[in-house]
Amino acid sequence: MGIFDQNNEPFSDSELSRHIERALAVDGPRGPMFELSYPILRRLFKPQLLATANIPQEPCLFIGNHSLFAMDGMVLGPVLFHEQGRFLRGLGDKFLWHSFTEEYLLGQGAAIGHPQVCSALMEHGADLMVFPGGAHEATKTQEQRYTLQWRERYGFIRLAAKHNYPIVPMAIMGPDEFFDHAIEGRDLPDTALGQLLARMGLISDDTRRDMLPPLPLGALGLPLPKPQRCYIQFGEPVRPVQSRGRPPGKQKLRQYRDQVGGQIEAMLQELMALRDEDRNQQGWLRALLTR
Predict the structure, then answer these.
(1) 155 closest CA partner among 72, 75, 89, 63
(2) What's the half-sphere exposure (Cβ side, CA atoms, 13 Å) at 34?
(3) Is 222 exposed, middle or buried (0-12, 13-18, 19+ CB in 10 A)?
(4) pTM over 0.85
(5) How confident is the model at residue 15, as a pLDDT?
(6) Is it the case that residue 8 has pLDDT exceeding 60?
(7) Quick one: average pLDDT of 188-202?
(8) CB atoms within 10 A of CB 44
(9) In the chain, is it the N or the C terminus that has fewer CB atoms within a 10 Å radius of its CB?
(10) Residue 159 to residues 102, 116, 186, 281: CA-CA distances in angstroms?
């Protein structure tokens, strides 16, 4: 079975219970990488937080657009922790989780994106970060940059309503441009590289092409992210509510989702204009490395 197979399940029921216990035991970032990453991120990507006054003081569910290779989380975690004092618990797709990744990911604040895990962390009063597009957005094509690939996903709305959590829309500009795409993931199995990966057992006939990442080209054609400036803007909180103890109906779920997604899409348009304006003022070296 390949790591991108659609039936890949990282944990059994008993292992999921153990994972929840371990996730609840994490009360702050662990390991030197989290601390070391912040000054590097500040210098490389110059992240700018906008409209932080929209963030409530209480625990929140931060919902945003996902970037290629999920590199937005790499930026958001340290920046929000150091500049806003918020320790985000990012909920990641199941294919990311294995015995050799669990320790590191937990130390960065992440946990597996499972309803039981989300509920446990909400009951614990944690700040959560969810990208409803999941792997679909993290492996999207170059033409799909800064678009929401949420399909018919409403789980985050149901859980926010159940646990009385405010949803904070969050637009992220920059990480989608860290890399160009030499080969799109959907085309990879038909290439010589794809055939090699199949022989190595990394992909198979069950592989979901929509979850395969592209072959990246970064700064100067190297597999290193381009130093694109990052902008993170926060929208007005959306507060889903239950009615008589029942989750919102399908129509109400769609209304809440459209409120969150609509704010994100509008903020992305604003950030694109800000990005284009700032590009005219960047130095020659950054301009060269971000071409």
Answers:
(1) 63
(2) 20
(3) exposed
(4) yes
(5) 81
(6) no
(7) 86
(8) 20
(9) C
(10) 24, 10, 32, 43
Closest to 15 (Cα-Cα) out of 97, 90, 91, 123? 97
Report the largest interatomic distance among the alpha carbons of the chain, rounded to a whole angstrom: 60
Q: Tokens standing for 213?
A: 């990442």
For residue 76, which of 222, 153, 174 has the smallest C-alpha distance?
Answer: 174
| Predicted local distance difference test score (pLDDT) of residue 276 | 92
Mapping DSSP onto H, E and C, the string for the chain reads CCCCECCCCCCCHHHHHHHHHHHHCCCCCCCHHHHHHHHHHHHHHCCEEECHHHCCCCCCEEEECCCHHHHHHHHHHHHHHHHHCCCEEEEECHHHCCHHHHHHHHHCCCEECCHHHHHHHHHCCCEEEECCCHHHHHCCCHHHCCCCCCCCCCHHHHHHHHCCCCEEEEEEECHHHCCEEEECHHHHHHCHHHHHHHHCCCCCCCECHHHCCCEEECHHHCCCCCCCCCEEEECCCECCCCECCECCCHHHHHHHHHHHHHHHHHHHHHHHHHHHHHHCCCCHHHHHHCC
- How far are the Cα atoms of 77, 207, 288 from residue 274, in angstroms, in the given order? 23, 39, 20
**Contact at 8 Å (CB) between 275 and 45?**
no
Give the separation between CA 16 and CA 115, rounded to whole angstroms.
Answer: 11
Write down the pLDDT at residue 35: 84
